[in-house]
Amino acid sequence: MGNGETTVEKKISTDTALDIPWNVVVHNDPVNLMTYVTMVFQRVFGYSKDRAQKHMLEVHEHGRSIVWTGVREPAESYVEQLQGYLLLATLEKAQ
Amino acid sequence: MTVEVTRTEDGLRLARLDLFFVELLRQIPVSADPADSDAARDRLYPTATNDAQSNEDWRAYVHPELKTLFTDATELVREDLEKFEQLDETNDNWAFEIPAIHFDQWLNVLNQARLALAARFDFKEIEMSQNGPRNIETVRDLSLFQVHFYGFLQECLLQDMAE
After folding, report:
1. Is A90 close to B125, i.e. CB distance below 8 A?
2. A–B interface: beta-carbon pairs under 8 A
3. Do the Cβ atoms of B49 and A90 come within 8 Å?
4. What is the predicted pLDDT for the residue at A32?
């Protein structure tokens, strides 16, 4: 029993290590309003208005912005929230 | 064509609406429904990665949650849209109030409608960045006008929320 638990712990640890880091990427679309995108970044990530606007402008001018980087589970949750706000958000492994 | 927008104690009031704008507002839930268009459905329900298995999981577990979120918001907006007031005998003076407690759902459904219309008609960036069509002669023109009008409403809501 004890050995089994140790194995599971090691597996989780290895998977987690392999999973770091993931990028949450927001892509440009011509429909979402710039003020709306800024508000969504403030709400979802708790970013300041300046930081949210910086990411919004990066999306607008460069076509995409990495808005958050970290472990996979919260990254997936962020993508789901952003898609709930109808932003074009994806998840990708950081280089 | 004019629409008067004022802040009230309980929300945002649209007035001096003629039947054309009343109909545009009533079309919000219809336009938001992506059922008739693969392009609209793909835009409202995107996948999340470039991995086929992950995307299959995303469709199985996340898309139903998004659908519930979008459907609930749409139903609430649909109920609000049953409360138009006709202010006089003419058909050019209707009023309508968006309750402040429903602003989030309205923003969401207006966005669903704008994105679904843009995907259906494949509107280009240049069409979106201009002020809308000068003349409405085709269904495409009308849909582009809708996208711009709904965007105007979103701007009004966002401005009010920021104050």
Report:
1. no
2. 65
3. yes
4. 94
A14, exposed or middle or buried, with CB in 10 Å at 0-12, 13-18, 19+? exposed
* CB contacts, 8 Å: B161 with chain A: 39
Angle (CA) A90 B151 B44, round 5°: 30
Mutation target vs A (from B158, B159, B160, B163; most A CBs, 10 A cutoff): B158
How many helices (H) and strands (E) chain B has is answered by 7, 4
From chain A, pick out residues whose CB is under 8 angstroms from the CB of B123: 30-31
Distance in angstroms (rounded) separating the CA atoms of residues B115 and B59:
19
| pLDDT digits 0-9 by tens, B99-114 | 999 999 999 999 999 9
Of the two residues B86 and A27, the one the predictor is more confident about is: A27
Residue stretches of chain A with pLDDT short of 70: 1-19
* Residue A83 with chain B: CB contacts under 8 Å: 45-46, 48, 62, 66
Task: Note the pLDDT of residue A40.
Answer: 97
Contact A93, A24 (CB under 8 A): no
**Chain mean pLDDT for chain B:** 92
CA distance A80 to B31: 23
Give the pTM. 0.88
- Contact predicate B77/B105, CB 8 Å: yes
